[in-house]
Amino acid sequence: MKKGFLTCALIAICGVTDAQIKAITENGEEVVLFENGQWEYTESNEVVDEEEILMNPLKFTRPATSAFLLKSTKFNIGTYLDSKKWTIEKGKGDDAYEYQLTLNQGDLYAMMITEQVEIPLESLKAIALENARDVAPDVYVVKEEYRMVNGLKVLMLQMNGTLSGIKFSYYGYYFSSEKGTIQFIGYTSQNLLSKYQKTIEDLLNGLVQY
What we know:
The protein has a single domain (5-209), classed as Protein Transport Mog1p, Chain A (3-Layer(aba) Sandwich). The strands form three sheets. An eight-stranded mixed β-sheet has the order 4-10-11-12-13-9-8-7, sandwiched between helices. The protein has a three-stranded antiparallel β-sheet with strand order 1-2-3, with no helix packed on it. The protein has helices at residues 5-11, 124-133, 193-204, and strands spanning 20-24, 30-34, 39-41, 55-60, 68-71, 77-81, 86-90, 99-103, 109-115, 140-149, 152-163, 166-177, 180-189, 207-209. The chain is mostly beta strands. The two termini are 29 Å apart. The chain is 14% helix and 44% strand.
């Protein structure tokens, strides 16, 4: 399947990039070195935002049109989706994602990143930010809250950033249990987020344990 530039660029956020190297200064501070000679402190040297994340009082459920269950092969997690709207590609080899999804009519993409490791829900925000800032250092959180989605407590994060001059938005759900962890992320350019927000939420709200 042919991928647009936005897709290829943003997938890099979930993997390792050769364009930067982490190093320790003589003062013991961790920095990132870029090929262009620039550097900056890593997130570990920043003040951690400990502001309380609030629970959205609404209950979120899958749309009636989302009838196809896409199951993870790593643990008992999956999502119901409208198979007429989305093209599904299974990850291969060293791909960070288990599944990548592309909206058939539009510039909207999503990834399911799964692993058989339990991670405290409270830690997932910092991990998501660190992964994103590895290749897009200006990433910041626009919105955050806990949600109940089909009976699962998930962390919802909306993050904005810039990569290769493209202003992008991540809109994702993060969930973990004793069986494993999922990062379920929709993404598009910032100027298109309002257009696709309902479509993203319809997809994310299909998240279920089976």
